[in-house]
Amino acid sequence: xxxxxxxxxxxxxxPSEYCILALIYERQxxxxxxxxxxxxxxxxxxxxxxxxxxxxxxxxxxxxxxxxVIVLRExxxxxxxxxxxxxxxxxxxxxxxxxxxxxGPRILRPANSDTKEGKICLEKWQKIVGNDPxxxxxxxxxxxxxxxxxxxxxxxxxxxxxxxNKRTYERYIPFLKEETNKTNEVEGI
Length: 189
Fold this sequence. Notes:
By secondary structure, this protein is mostly helical.
């Protein structure tokens, strides 16, 4: 997770507050509880975030806090959706624009994400990714693996929107795991 300090200053967010928002966004409640138990974040941080309208507390704090009842408001979600859109652009720009076939070039994706077709791809991608913070990176890794494995057969590659719709990236997850296992064997892990 990259944090721009200028962004925190502009939004008047303490680093601890940003951390809380990120953990709620990623549904990492066990980490949130751990930070709270260590005293690194406290009740005042949550109250401040509610005052700034980033979260909605659905009850009073007590000795036992159920972090899952803290609702991230749209303004809190927007802090991270910007990063998600950057992930879409990273995926979009990696995907080949066109490939050469025996019958001539074939277009795989729009040249620009701002076109009507590009926006359709973004909307479909957002529906699939939802609030999963790890899926965009997984999709990028799978595409990289696919491009590496099929570098001599790219003429058969699907159009980008089809690749997203059919979740073709899922076919390459086993190859990522296989690669991780080989790396761990070499490193002696």
